[in-house]
Every structure is written in C-alpha cells, then in structure tokens.
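Changelog-adjacent note: as of this version, every example in the card shows the full chain rather than a window. The one below runs 393 residues end to end.
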Amino acid sequence: MGSKIHVYVISLVLFFFDASGAQSNIFDVRKYGARADARSDTSQALSSAWKEACTAVGSSKIMIPKGTYLVGVVDLKGPCKGAMHFEVQGTFIAPTSPNAHNKASWITFAYIDRLTISGGGTFDGRGEIAWKQNNCGQNPKCKSLPISLRFDFVTNSIVRDVTSLDSKNFHVNVMGSENVTFQHFTVIAPGHSINTDGIHIGRSKRINIIDSDIITGDDCISIGDGSQQIRITKVRCGQGHGISVGSLGKYEKEDPVVGVFVRNCTVYDTDNGVRIKTWPALHGGIASDMHFEDIIMKNVSNPILIDQVYCPWNQCNPKIPSKVKINNVSFKNIQGSSTTPIAIRLNCSSSVPCEKVELANINLEYIGADGPIKSLCANVKPRLIGQSIPPGS
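Full-length structure tokens:
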C-alpha cells in the first residue's frame, strides 16, 4: 500500500505555536502590499493585515520584516478574537509634515487585550520640522502635534525591545489601560525637542516601566491624573525634565493619583530629577502614596522637587495657591550631583500643605561654583531619617 502525501497551500496565513502550545497565525504585511522602500504608503496594507489577524480564531502575529516602511495615520483597534503579537523588525517612518496627520496620534492601539509589541524595530516620528513649528509656549490655542504611539484601553499587554525615535509630540500616551508593561523600551530624541514626553500615563492602573532607556527633550515619564499603582524600575532617564508626577490640577474633576513607585533609576543631565508638579489657582485633586528610592542623579538641576506653583508660559495665576493635596511621599537613598545649590526644593501649597513627606539618606553634591548646597521647604515639615546632605530645612 503506497503512502499518501498531503500538501496544504496557504497563501496569506502561516501558522506558529505560542508559548502555551496553542496554534496561532502569522500575517506578513508584505503579502498585503507593504513595500519596504521608504516611499510607498504602507497604511492600508498594515490596516488590512491587522483586520484579518484581529478577526482570526486564536492568537495572531503581524510580521513587519526588516526594511523601512512609510506609514500614515493608522488606528489598530480591537476587541480581537485572540492575543495579538505585533512584531516590528523593520522601521516605521511617519510623514515628515505635521499637516499630513489628520488626528492627534500617528499609530493607535485601542481596545485590545493581550497585545505584545516586540521585534527590535523602530517607530520614527521624524519630528524635527514639527518642533520648529511648535509655538504652544506663546499660543495656548496652538494646534496639537501628533503623539507617536497611543495605547487606549489596552489590557494585559507588553511592549518590549522596540524604539521610539524623534516623535513630533509625546512618544507614548497610555490612557484608560491596565496591566501594561514596557520593558527594554528605548526612547530617543534630542534635548531641543519640545513636549516629547517619553511615556505619559493617564487614568491607567498597574503600568510597569522596566529596564528602559529614555532620552528626550521633555519628561522621561509623566504621570497624569487617575494613575494608580505605577511602577518604574531600572530606568535610565536623560536630557529632558526628569521623571514627573503631573502636572495636576489643570482640569476639573481629575481623578486621584495613588501609588507611584520609582526605584533603582538613574537620572542624568536633566532640568529636574524626580518631581511632583501641580498648577496653582485652578482645580483640586489628590496625589498620595508616592515613593522615590535608590536613585542616582548625575548633573541634575533640581534633583528633588515638589512644585505646587507650576505655571509654564504664565497661563495661570501663581499667587493663588494650589488646591491639589499631596501626602504620603518619600525620597530615600538618593545620591549624586546637583548643578544648582538648591538640591531639594519642597514648595507645597499654603492652602493644602503637604503631609507625611519623608527624606531619608540623601547625599547630593553641588558641582557648580563655590557655595553651600541647601534645601528649601515651604508649607511642609518633612521627616528626616539618616544622613541628609543637604540638610532638610
């Protein structure tokens, strides 16, 4: 009896097995018309591949092989029938002109559970021209530039081993999401890039940023209202404005910020180190249970800062105190160098003074001209533990 050979021909979909052994599908964007020539618009091919992958039964992987792909504005939305793996081996490049974006973001992932983004690739926002057109410092009614990557209502997901380069606005915005991890994530933009926060988090829970490098012109990480249980560990933050909670109190009915843990990080060549900032005169809010520990500062202008008179571009009245209540804050085991003589500045609200603020084992050296290093405190009496250089005041 002769043997039978069965041959299965599969045109667009290949199969792989995920870590659990379940069968999954591979969707290669080139099969949908994507061309890695940096000139052909890949948006439609990417959207088509996503649509088929999202509706396929079981887990799906979208493959972006090595090469350079021009991508316009794309919304990649769920809910999907299975876990989604977005493997970017190549480089996505955005349109150069900000006017080519008809939305507030470039690539959006929304309403997805179990999303993985990986592959070692790059999302290049090509922001140089856009930064030159940014006049928001002088014009409060300015047109917003597009965020590179948005994660809206994404759950149980991970972004790892990819790079965001030269975003026009924020590199990443996380909104309404839960249990999302950024690991081995890289952000790169020059110091003169305006409003290019590395990762901004708002109204999200259990967001983890682990072992990542963020070099940009604004906050490396900014934590907005409604953020809860945010953990930042082994992040190297350079050039911009440091790691910030806030700004808070600018809008009505902001949700509380509760549970921020920043540990084992290095901050270098920045305007600020670790910072909590709230607007004066505007709206109330709560920020509590925030802890900054085991942090190295290198050439940082304001290593430890609570700023409750944050008022950029004079868009508020700094004489009216902030209505945001700050409590249960600790700064522990922080060492390194300050480029200003005031290494610790705790400027709390006279209306709702800060409560339960702790400074423990602080060792900061002023590397500027001769003069004593010192701290300034207003409307707060911090608890001092162990060595404190400069001494609390």
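Structural remarks: The first helix runs from residue 43 to 55.
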